[in-house]
Amino acid sequence: MLKLFKPAPPIDRLPDEQIDSEYKKLRLQVFLGIFIGYAAYYLIRKNFSLAMPYLIEEGFTKSELGFALSAISISYGISKFVMAIFSDRSNPRMFLPAGLILSALISLLMGVVPYFTSSVTIMFVMLFLNGWFQGMGWPPSGRVLVHWFSVSERGNKTAIWNVAHNVGGGLMAPLAVAGAAMFTGLTGNTSSGYEGVFTLPALVAIVFAFITYFLIRDTPQSVGLPPIEEYRNDYPNKEKKTFETEFSTKEILFKYVLNNKWVWAIAIANIFVYFVRYGVLDWAPTYLSEEKGFDMNKSSVAYFLYEWAGIPGTLLCGWLSDKLFKGRRGPAGFVFMLGVLIAVLVYWFNPPGNSVVDMICLIAIGFLIYGPVMLIGLQALDFVPKKAAGTAAGLTGLFGYLGGTVTANALMGVIVDASGWDAGFMLLTGSCALAALVFALTWNVRGQEVVKNH
């Protein structure tokens, strides 16, 4: 492992009278760091979806673009797992901004150099690289969450942090549209403008990477503070064990992650949740343009609303799972996925010309889908000791992206080209039902009890 990324070592503890004030200050600071940093990752993750209608005009087919789009999901799914193993043994202050800068550089190349969008193969390679660097965002964020926030507060904090998805994803669309207007003709193609879809969000992301570096710290012990469990007197077990020793990669994988049946259950649920999430989101600009008569600006508004509707939905889902269902995530996931199923059906059968109904459906799907996304990530953190949290989340991400998002990108493109949008929507509705079913299987499982049994 590069010396640059080594975990920050513990230092001598601060005087007792300084601990409370320093802990409060740094908890807010590191939380802002991972929130801003992870939101910035989403500024440059899904730009290609907004560029796709332009690229179709240039002669690419939906099957070809779906194949290219699948690259980011294939590499992200693998990277989120591989990088999580490294992240669990790295300093998130370095790890998270490094991935963000590398991802932004790939996006800049696609916007500035025409060669990098000249063929499906080249776009696939570039999106694969972007996805790989994108995998450096979630795991260090998870490491920060489990070290700075204790078990009994982690559900609420994770729900709040999780809306960074929506803040970044929602801001990407207007930034991309502004970029398209600002950078039209950047590469000599004055009739297009999709170059700016990649360029402006990437520039903004690089600025945020530096801000993130200045905000994040590794563990409380690395800045002279006690472990979070000691500070809040909130331990995950009766023995008051905190699992502060660094585990080996073998221990993380084989002792705490791969032999955990509940981690596998939520990994399978993630396949169906992610298929719906990205099957709707990634194809919304193209579907709305072809079937519902939306233009680029109107599609970007719908994209923005889909993402930002997820903010209150995620917070509500987290609250319900904590308060109403007493820490059981399965019931909340089941209820929300049934809601997604209804909204997808209305979105599908709503005839062209009723743009308000389409907007409401996208808002409803966005409001509902991000709750289950958050719950699966939260369960991954809760089901294992905190030194293995990134790897557990990485495994669920591997399943979600390889099994869910890749099929949402590539399979949807092929199916829609071959059999029309109705066939694509049949896949979406089936996935909603299967996701709800798997959540139902975890109905009575409480994450904190699973941790206690380790």
From TrEMBL:
Q: Which GO terms describe its biological process?
A: phosphate ion transmembrane transport
| UniProt main location, coarse | membrane
Pfam families noted in UniProt: MFS_1 (PF07690)
Annotated membrane-spanning segments are: 26-44, 65-86, 98-129, 163-186, 198-216, 262-281, 301-320, 332-350, 356-378, 390-411, 423-445
UniProt subcellular location:
Cell membrane
Which terms in the Gene Ontology molecular function aspect does this entry carry?
glucose 6-phosphate:phosphate antiporter activity; glycerol-3-phosphate transmembrane transporter activity
What GO cellular component is one of the record's annotations? plasma membrane
Keywords, ordered alphabetically? Cell membrane, Membrane, Transmembrane, Transmembrane helix, Transport
User: What CDD domains does UniProt report for this protein, alphabetically?
Assistant: MFS_GlpT
Which residue ranges does the record assign to the Major facilitator superfamily (MFS) profile domain? 26-448
- Spell out the InterPro entries in the cross-references: G3P_transporter, MFS, MFS_dom, MFS_trans_sf, OPA_Antiporter, Sugar-P_transporter_CS, Sugar_P_transporter
Membrane topology category: Multi-pass membrane protein
Q: Family assignment? A: Belongs to the major facilitator superfamily. Organophosphate:Pi antiporter (OPA) (TC 2.A.1.4) family.
The record ties this protein, via NCBIfam families, to: 2A0104, glpT
> What is the name of this protein?
Glycerol-3-phosphate transporter
